[in-house]
UniProtKB/TrEMBL annotation:
<feature type="transmembrane region" description="Helical">
    <location>
        <begin position="319"/>
        <end position="343"/>
    </location>
</feature>
<dbReference type="GO" id="GO:0005789">
    <property type="term" value="C:endoplasmic reticulum membrane"/>
</dbReference>
<feature type="transmembrane region" description="Helical">
    <location>
        <begin position="453"/>
        <end position="477"/>
    </location>
</feature>
<feature type="transmembrane region" description="Helical">
    <location>
        <begin position="146"/>
        <end position="167"/>
    </location>
</feature>
<feature type="transmembrane region" description="Helical">
    <location>
        <begin position="112"/>
        <end position="134"/>
    </location>
</feature>
<dbReference type="GO" id="GO:0006488">
    <property type="term" value="P:dolichol-linked oligosaccharide biosynthetic process"/>
</dbReference>
<comment type="function">
    <text>Intramembrane glycolipid transporter that operates in the biosynthetic pathway of dolichol-linked oligosaccharides, the glycan precursors employed in protein asparagine (N)-glycosylation. The sequential addition of sugars to dolichol pyrophosphate produces dolichol-linked oligosaccharides containing fourteen sugars, including two GlcNAcs, nine mannoses and three glucoses. Once assembled, the oligosaccharide is transferred from the lipid to nascent proteins by oligosaccharyltransferases.</text>
</comment>
<feature type="transmembrane region" description="Helical">
    <location>
        <begin position="173"/>
        <end position="198"/>
    </location>
</feature>
<feature type="transmembrane region" description="Helical">
    <location>
        <begin position="392"/>
        <end position="410"/>
    </location>
</feature>
<keyword id="KW-0812">Transmembrane</keyword>
<dbReference type="GO" id="GO:0034203">
    <property type="term" value="P:glycolipid translocation"/>
</dbReference>
<feature type="transmembrane region" description="Helical">
    <location>
        <begin position="76"/>
        <end position="100"/>
    </location>
</feature>
<dbReference type="InterPro" id="IPR007594">
    <property type="entry name" value="RFT1"/>
</dbReference>
<keyword id="KW-0256">Endoplasmic reticulum</keyword>
<keyword id="KW-0472">Membrane</keyword>
<comment type="similarity">
    <text>Belongs to the RFT1 family.</text>
</comment>
<protein>
    <recommendedName>
        <fullName>Protein RFT1 homolog</fullName>
    </recommendedName>
</protein>
Amino acid sequence: GGTRKVLPVRLLSQVLFRVVTFALNAFTLRYLSRELIGVVNVRLTLLYSTVVFLAREAFRRACLSGSAKRNWTKTINLLWLTVPLGVFWSLILGLVWLHLLEVPDPSVVPHYQAGVVAFGLSAIIELLGEPLWVLAQAHLFVRLKVIAESLSIVSKCILTVTLVILYPHWGLYIFSLAQLLYVSVLVMCYVIYFVMFLGSPEATKKSFPVARVKALLPSFTFVNWKEARLTWSFFKQSFLKQILTEGERYVMTFLNVLNFGDQGVYDIVNNLGSLVARFIFLPIEESFYVFFAKVLERGKTVKDQKQDDVAMAANVLELLLKLVLLIGLTITVFGYAYSQLALDIYGGSMLSSGTGPDLLRCYSLYVLFLAVNGITECFTSALMCKEEVDRYNFVMLALSFIFLCISYFLTHWYGSVGFILANCFNMGIRIAHSTHYIHHFFRESSHRPLRGLLPSPALLLVYIISAVVTAFSEVLFCCDKGWMARLIHVSTGALCLAATLVTMFFSETKLVHFVRSQFVSRYLKKGT
């Protein structure tokens, strides 16, 4: 039950962070250069996230595994080691960022050195709250996490907007101060909560394992050696995980494949495109992963499963694949003709001229790959046995390295669009792996859920016509011919979308019934 409570909260905080970043970028683009935004969102954010990740990730994984009942004094002592580790990584990486990487032109991006120092310092400040964060997470203090993260994000935004309006010439000072405020508010929320909570009647009632504030400070008691050994084993993995998670940013930062302006535009378009994945696909994947894991037994062949359950799972998988395929196709078809207009409205001519529209068009295609991959991997990860998961992790590792190499070469040839093409290639191979697993699993049954990846011929025809009509409309009416021409372009798209939805309604009746029963009725129940 606790885990079910934490998952939506984690999702909520991720979505909040992305929405705020989305809104903040739209605002700052009108006041600051895209080079400045590129340095902040790619270069400096990468420094901060790398220091924080290397200093704490292994400790978090080790100290949150197992039960919450343990010797917390020893665990807290172990967690305080994240601070000196953070200081070490801040100094080492700070020197790399200052002396080994290309320094931006001071006339375009002023105060770069101050930015590096501030973002390194902000990582250390955040690590000061690590023992409190782990203690709160282990005891499922869900509301505290949401309030702390929301307050810190909102305060960061208010300060950024104020400084951008009043002192746009401050350059990186603006984002440095905002970042320091963000981590300070985050840590202070946890400190204030625990100062008030410890020793209170509520803490006594819950039999909270830490009685006094003094017990949260480092002491001369030894650490938990079992957790320390576990931390070391996780630490060896954390290097690799960080490189693979932030692969694109490392390629941009260390290999100079893009200039700072293109990095800024790429990061903004990436944020813009990933909102769709976060809002639409991730909730579907998370809820149906639980469904598949409950209905089918992990590691068993299709013949050894209950046949009624197999039939239900196959039907749901087929309809889910059809649903995400049609959402992805709709975004791909209409995204092509409306990328330039969307970017012009969102960020002005700075985004809608240059590589921005091509990037968003490619990202619209990438969304289709993301949609299908999310569901196929959701099904396979719910069914794989331990040996298959280990084998799959090895495949993923190899794929990630191939992705980094392909990213490097494609960006040399096609600029920032190369990153998205590399992502499409990566997702394509993952989809091939998952669909092969699904085909093999259902081979000895009469069910063929992969048919969900085939839309009806009538709908396919409407998609093709819509793509051609909207592409012509963009050439004729968008985006420098005034608001009336833009309105005609939008109306053309609206008519094509309406025709697509009507065709979908009549040609995909099983899917319409599935969406009504699974999503619409559930939403209406929540509302009443």
